[in-house]
Amino acid sequence: MEARIDGRLRRGDQTRRAVLKHAVDIASVDGLEALSIGRLAKDLEISKSGLFAHFGSKVELQLATIRAARRIYAVAVVEPALAVPPGLGRLWALSDSWLDYSKRRVFPGGCFFAKATHEYGARPGQVHDLLAAANREWLDLIEQTIEEAGELGELEADPSQLAFELNAFYDSANMASLLRDNDDAVYEQARHSIRVRLEAAAKAGTPLPWIG
Amino acid sequence: MEARIDGRLRRGDQTRRAVLKHAVDIASVDGLEALSIGRLAKDLEISKSGLFAHFGSKVELQLATIRAARRIYAVAVVEPALAVPPGLGRLWALSDSWLDYSKRRVFPGGCFFAKATHEYGARPGQVHDLLAAANREWLDLIEQTIEEAGELGELEADPSQLAFELNAFYDSANMASLLRDNDDAVYEQARHSIRVRLEAAAKAGTPLPWIG
DNA sequence: ATACTATACGAACGGTCGTATTATTAGTTT
DNA sequence: AAACTAATAATACGACCGTTCGTATAGTAT
After folding, report:
1. Which of A29, A121, A164 has the CB atom closest to B172's CB atom?
2. CA dist., res. A139 & res. A159, Å (int)
3. What are phi and psi of B186, to 5 degrees?
4. For residues A179 and B135, is the Cβ–Cβ distance under 8 A?
5. Which long-range contacts (CB under 8 A, 24 or more apart) does A145-151 make?
6. What are φ and ψ of residue B203, in 5° steps?
7. pLDDT digits 0-9 by tens, A125-170
8. Which nucleotide is nearest to B35 (CA to C1')?
9. In the structure, how far is the CA atom of residue B70 from the C1' atom of nucleotide D6, in angstroms?
10. Range from A17-21, A97-101, B8-12 carrying the lowest mean pLDDT
């Protein structure tokens, strides 16, 4: 069953991929609004109209860019954590991979979603809605990870409350690092806050993942 | 010593004030970049060139807008807290007035600085620098409030660490409220996180300001 | 070879952007 | 009333915006 693919579609797919790869980087630094079709075309040395045809409208380009960022985020943050068994260890791994994702500048402007969400937080429309859904999805993942740790008897905490706090530490470290140019100390500060918070919620006898 | 003021300067001042009053609102919703001179002039029904003459450049308009937002912020958030005596009570008042500032939508797009800081966090320039300075100033105020409470024997905590955590809760509540349209529950969630955190840091015997 | 399709292109549209130049109006001073 | 000053306005500029249109090219099917 050799899957012979139409060469034309393949070519279009490659272009589309190249566009989105560049688009997420621009958007993470300058925002989804500054993501202009002309600028993208110039950077990639393709025609404006050819690029435009791939998406049909500016807003569709923005939505496609968000979906592309989500895929990158899933690989950089979520998958490494899911490779760790459920429980407190996975919750710590999730926190760790998030801070690393921000620190490593997987997106050059820091967390793509922190940036985009603030940009469209107060503006109604499809972009806002997609970002809100992504945010809900992300918080659900944290909450679920906390719940699992609770069911395993490793943790005692209100999942929604603890998820709110952990997520707050992530975002705040990300932003502080952007303001104080690449000061890695803020990540250590966040890591410390997370560790202390999880220690307070951990049940006695649970092995703490940040020790050995 | 009657201070007879030049009527021309007065007129200019009024215009300038009206421009900035509108500018902070636009910027808090659409960002400092979307704050265009033409749009401002149309909304206020004055000429584009006349408005432009007040600031001389786009970037100066943006800087003036940030300074105007800082003044509003000082009145809405800082002053009410400084009216409370130093100590744990003042720290709680600061947290309370911040959450109220966000919830009341003093700026229609939520916290002006959360928005602007994310917009210019990854972009070098004067706007970035002014926002970074404002952020440093704000964190210093929280830290100083914590230090005072420590010196009064009401609190035991690393000021920098606790300031980071409290500020993280503020910002996270603000953003969550924007995403889940005006869901006041997130403010209660943040308030709860803050209260628990301060209870853990409060020294025995200290009256807790949120009780009675 | 022929017909068909998907992708890419160049040129142009009406608008808006920030900015500069030049004129006009309102208010103060002499 | 004349001279001066500060605020506002009118007009124009080149650059870029998102979008549309007609056309050329590359790859597939008949």
Report:
1. A164
2. 10
3. -65, -30
4. yes
5. A145/A81, A145/A86, A145/A90, A145/A91, A145/A94, A146/A91, A148/A86, A148/A87, A148/A90, A149/A86, A149/A87, A149/A88, A149/A90, A149/A91
6. -80, 150
7. 999 999 999 999 999 999 999 999 999 999 999 999 999 999 999 9
8. C17
9. 28
10. B8-12
CA atoms within 13 A on the CB side of B185: 7
The CA distance from B149 to B81, in Å, is: 13
- Residue B2 has what pLDDT? 42
Q: In chain A, which residues touch B (CB < 8 A)?
A: 28-31, 33-34, 108-110, 114-115, 117-119, 121-123, 131-132, 135-136, 160-161, 164-165, 167-169, 171-172, 175-176, 178-180, 186, 189-190, 192-193, 200
Q: Residues B66-93: what's their mean pLDDT?
A: 98
Which residue is it, tokens 């916290």?
Answer: B111
Torsion sign over Cα B99, B101, B105, B107: negative
DSSP letters for A108-121: TTS-HHHHHHHHHT
* Any strand D atom closer than 7 Å to A38 CB: yes
At A1, the pLDDT band (50, 70, 90 cuts) reads very low
Report the pLDDT value the prediction gives residue A6, as an integer from 0 to 100. 86
pLDDT band of residue B8 (cuts 50, 70, 90) is confident
> Across the interface, do A164 and B176 touch by the CB < 8 Å criterion?
yes
CB contact under 8 A, A122 and B115: yes
In the three-class reduction of DSSP (H, G, I as helix; E, B as strand; rest coil), residue A155 is classed as strand
Number of A to B CB contacts under 8 A, please give it.
107
| The pair of three-digit structure tokens given for residue B195, joined into one six-digit string | 């209260």
User: What is the crossing angle of helices A48-55 and A37-44, to 10°?
Assistant: 120
More confident residue, B126 or A181: B126
Least confident of A1-5, A157-161, B34-38: A1-5
* Distance (Å, whole) CA B206 – CA B200: 12
Residue type, B166: L
